Known about the structure:
The complex is a heterodimer of chains A (113) and B (115). Chain A is built from no helices and eleven strands. Chain A has strands spanning 4-7, 10-14, 19-25, 30-38, 45-51, 56-59, 62-67, 72-77, 86-94, 101-103, 107-112. In chain A, strands 2, 4, 5, 9, 10 and 11 form a six-stranded mixed sheet that branches. A five-stranded antiparallel sheet of chain A has the order 1-3-8-7-6, with no helix packed on it. In chain A, β6 (56-59) and β7 (62-67) form a beta hairpin. Chain B has no helices and eleven strands. Chain B has strands at 5-7, 10-13, 19-24, 31-37, 43-50, 53-57, 65-68, 75-79, 88-95, 105-106, 110-114. Chains A and B meet through β5 and β10 of A and β5, β9 and β10 of B.
Amino acid sequence: xxxxxxxxxxxxxxxxxxxxxxxxxxxxxxxxxxxxxxxxxxxxxxxxxxxxxxxxxxxxxxxxxxxxxxxxxxxxxxxxxxxxxxxxxxxxxxxxxxxxxxxxxxxxxxxxx
Amino acid sequence: xxxxxxxxxxxxxxxxxxxxxxxxxxxxxxxxxxxxxxxxxxxxxxxxxxxxxxxxxxxxxxxxxxxxxxxxxxxxxxxxxxxxxxxxxxxxxxxxxxxxxxxxxxxxxxxxxxx
Lengths: 113, 115
């Protein structure tokens, strides 16, 4: 079954600290993996998109990694800010599945001062 | 920066009533989507739309749902006879060309509450 699982479900960190969020997927055949940030009550906003051949991609303080062999990805947030408080969702696109995306349940991150 | 807009932001309706959720995708985008997110659960794909027809739909998208692009700008989701379990956030999204690495731009969502 094509699934995306994320851990932890929730995380609290202090402002300025780093954190890493995990994503495991069973979606096959794999096309690409995306990380989205979703503020409460808002639509998801794309952070990164990674294809099979990409191991690392950065977007400012966000760095995503992908291991297509083990079907794992991580999102590392550096020097967290209060505005980073949100849900971070791992999303996988299956190859030959049109543009249908499979969403993970998200990690709810809270950054405290 | 162009953005996807959705109206209304919150819709309350009685069970059995019809609702129409509206979306204005980014103007030069060609592919349009509806997703829903039940409170506390994952975002789920409902339907994709291209060239004035449905290109894909999920099991959730049954005969109670329909989509339409009535003019050059709006993209609507109609739920014919709402059920309590239709209560959710509904997100519209659009992409430009449909390439596998194209970014999907999501609207802010419509919160549908069915009483």
